[in-house]
From TrEMBL:
Cofactor dependence: Mn(2+)
CDD domains: MPP_PPP_family
A single GO cellular-component term on record: cytoplasm
Alphabetical UniProt keywords: Hydrolase, Manganese, Metal-binding, Protein phosphatase
Enzyme Commission numbers on file: 3.1.3.16
Organism for this UniProt entry: Trichomonas vaginalis (strain ATCC PRA-98 / G3)
InterPro entries assigned: Calcineurin-like_PHP, Metallo-depent_PP-like, PP1_catalytic_subunit, Ser/Thr-sp_prot-phosphatase
Name of the protein in its database record: Serine/threonine-protein phosphatase
PROSITE patterns xref list: SER_THR_PHOSPHATASE
Amino acid sequence: MEDDDDLSILSNAFELYRSFVDYTQTLQKNGKNDFIIPRITKELIMTLCDKVKQLFKNDQPLVTANFPCAIIGDLHGNIYDLVRIISKYGMPIAVEYIFLGDYVDRGQFSLETLVFILLLKWRFPRKVHMIRGNHEFPSREGPGYFRTDLQDLGYTPDVYDAFVHLFEEIPIAALLTKDILCVHGGIGPGSTLESLKMLKYPLCEKKNDNIMDFLWSDPTELSEDFDISPRGKGWLFGRNACSKFLSENNLKRIIRGHSFIETGFKSYFHGSLLTIYSTSRSIKQPNIGATLYLKSFENYNVDYYDPLPPIYRSQVKVISELPRLLPLPMPREKRTIPVVPVKICLVRRHSLTQVGRRITPP
């Protein structure tokens, strides 16, 4: 149970993000594209990590989720892509979210991206599901790494340590109903649902081959079975390997992230494996981002997000509270996060059910 001080810290932070949403909507209506970001204090980080770590323990060893569900791939510190995605589907009230990992590194706003998702997890613990990516492990120091980002922002080493301990509690996989396995990477020769259920948390050991296979493996169309991965970790797995895994574990599909996909989405092996890549800017290279929205196993939409322009921290104003520019408060149930900026943040949907160009799951 949260004490009053902790509840106040987290509630105020969540409301600041909610106000940030409304403020940005108002700026858009006025034709402005000012970039702002909520300030994140050490006190908030330490409190949030402690509280969400306890929520992860309730999710272990295997997250379970239900339809309707939005599935988000790698974000890599791109807070403004996250803003667009939440804008598309709304707050996690009528829809569940599964985040496939790789929240940090490479992008300009790893801290803000991760904290925003953690606040959503804290506020909607049964609707927001996070799984661990290969970047949610202790990182090296250097440009583009989360550890260095925190140092450059003036945080003390214990802040990074708090995140590392949080990462150790994030579940490795999620089951969407009983048919779909969501993981960050893929599978290896020894991967089974039972092996996921047998994992003991906190997961501190990076040398565990079973964990690394789920985090690092990639599908391939050049081999039918398993092959050596050029990444040096995990495996390449082909159609036969995927089919055998699904059959032996009573599953119908794998949904994963991990791989850079220039168009944001790729279907493998006649639709039995789907890859989603959600950031629209990988390092300095623009690409199309994508997310999945599933109403059922057969009925899913692929939503595409045109590339954002580069947005650097030096362009963004960090705020602790927002100017009162809203003409009228929006009804809470209608509050969503907007598309930023308006002119270049096109969201395109390929749908099975809506009028327009359709795609059919293979």
